[in-house]
Amino acid sequence: MPKASSLISLLCVLVLATSHAKANIVENNYAISIYDMGKLISHEHYLLNILENFTDLLQNKVDTIENYLEMMNYEEDEKPPNNAAEYFRLIRRLHLDYLNWVWYLEQQPWEVLVAHIIAIAPHMPSAKDIQEATRAIHLIQIVYSLPTDKMVEGILMDVQYNASLNPMECYTIANELFKDREYAAAMEWLSSGVDMYNAETDKEELYTQLGVPLSNFYELFVKIQDAQGGRGYAMTELKTAMKTWPEQVSFRRAHSRLKMNIRIDKEPNTEKARPEFVYAHCCTHECRPTSKLFCLYNSTTSSFLRLAPLKMELLSLDPYVVLYHDVVSEEDVERIKILAQEDLTRATTVHEDQVLREDPYRTTKAKWLNDTDEVTQRVSRLIQDMTNFDLSGSDMFQVMNYGIGGYYGNHYDFLRNAKSPKNFVDRIATTMFYLSDVPLGGATVFPVLKLSVFPKKGSALMWYNLHHSGEGDKRTFHSACPTIVGSRWVMTRWIREIQQLFRRPCLTQI
C-alpha cells in the first residue's frame, strides 16, 4: 500500500501545480486531429514516469523508516525501560533522533518533479478539447445509435474494444452534456458512472483525490433533474445527500437554488435541438442510388489512359459522381502524409460573407500543399487524366486529418451565393483522395442522392458541383460521417470553372 498512498499524495500536488499553470495553457486543438493526439501519448508517458519516480523516492523514505522501526523492535505495547542503558538510549533518541526525523520528513522529494509537471502544462489538452471530445462521443452515439451502457463497456458497433470507461470519465461526459443542454444523454452517462462508482468502493479515495468524489454525482443529478423539471425528486435526493455530506457547501447552494425554482415554478430548460441525421443509415451501410450503374476501365478521358486505364466505378450520372480505385500508391500516400503532418492547423470554412472561420461542425486539421513536390505534381497529372479538366487557377491540395469522432457537417463545395459578384469563379468539381482505411465510420455521404462511400486507401472520389448553367447543384450536399475507429486522412483538390470553358461549357439551357 505505500506506493498507492504516495501516488495519491503526488496527484494532489499535480492538481495544485496544474491549477497554477492554467493561465499558460493554450488551445492545442488535440481533439480534432488523431495525428496530433499522438503527441499526447508521449506527454502521458512523461507524466507517468514522474509518478513512478516519485513512488520510488517515497518508497526509499518508507524503507528507511521501516528499518528504523525494525531496529527499535517497535511494538504497540508500551514497555518501560528497566536499566540505565535503556534510559540513556531513550533520552538520546528523543533528544537527537527525532529532531533528525523531523528534518527527514520535511524533505519533499517531489519538488523537482512538480517543476517538471508545471513545465509541460502548456502542452496539455485544454477545456475546449474536453468539450470537443465529449461532443464527438455524443455525435457517434446519435449517428450510429450506440447505447450508453455498451459504449461504457467499450462495445462499439457490436465489436468489443479495449476502450471501457471509468466513473470519472462518465461523470466528465455527463457534465459536459449537461452544459450543452443534452439532459437525457447526460443522465444516462451519469447513471452509468454512479453504478460503477458504487461497485468500486475500494477506489473511492483515489477518485476523490482526483477531484471526482461521489458527492459530485449527486450534485450533477440534482442539476439535471432541476433542468428537466423533476424538482420534487431532485429535492428528495438532495436532502439525502446533505445528510451524507453535511460539510458540502455546494449542496447548500444547490438547495437554495432549487427551493427558489420550486417557489417561482420556473419553466424547465429545453434540450438542444438535435440535428436531423437523415444519412444515418448510409453512415452505417454503404448506399448506392441505383443498381444499374457499373464499373469499367476508363481509357478515354485522356490520351494517356489508353496506355494505363483507370478502374472507375460509376456512382451517379446526374449529378456526375465516380469512384476511382487504386489510383494512388502506398508510397505516394505516405509521402503526402509526411508533407502535411508537421504543420496541421485547424481547418476553417468559408461562410456566406466569404470569410474563413472556425466551424464547430468540422473536426479536422489541414494543411495546404502546392505542386512543388514531385508527388503532388504526379497527383495533379492524375487528376487531369481522371477529369479531363485544366487545373490552372484551381485551389491547392488540402490534406486533412480528422479528430475524435472526425466529422464534417453537411455542406456544399460550391461557393457562389446571392452576394457573390457576377465574375465569381466557382468550384466546378471536387476530387477527394482517401489516404487511409477507416475500420469503423468515416464514410462520405450524399444524403439527397442516398449515396455513401467508405474510405479505402489509394482510392479517389470525384463529382461535379455545378450544373451546366454554372449554378450550384444542391444535390451534391454531402458530409463526412463520424469516425469511430481509426484515423481518417483525405486530400482534396477543388477545380475552378474558369479554365474549363471548352471542356465543360456553361449552358443556360440543357
What can you tell me about this protein's structure?
This protein has 15 helices and 19 strands. The model is unreliable at 1-11 and 13-25 (pLDDT under 50). The strands form five sheets. A nine-stranded antiparallel sheet has the order 3-4-5-16-12-19-10-9-6, covered by helices on one side. It has a four-stranded antiparallel sheet with strand order 11-17-14-15, with no helix packed on it. Strands 1-2 form a two-stranded antiparallel ribbon. Strand 1 and strand 2 (159-160) form a beta hairpin. The longest helix is centred in the first third of the chain and has 38 residues, at 34-71. It folds into three domains: 1-125, no CATH class; 126-274, Serine Threonine Protein Phosphatase 5, Tetratricopeptide repeat; 280-500, q2cbj1_9rhob like domain (Jelly Rolls, Sandwich), CATH 2.60.120. It has 510 residues and is α+β, with helices and mostly antiparallel strands. Helix content is 44%, strand content 16%. The radius of gyration is 31 Å and the shape is elongated.
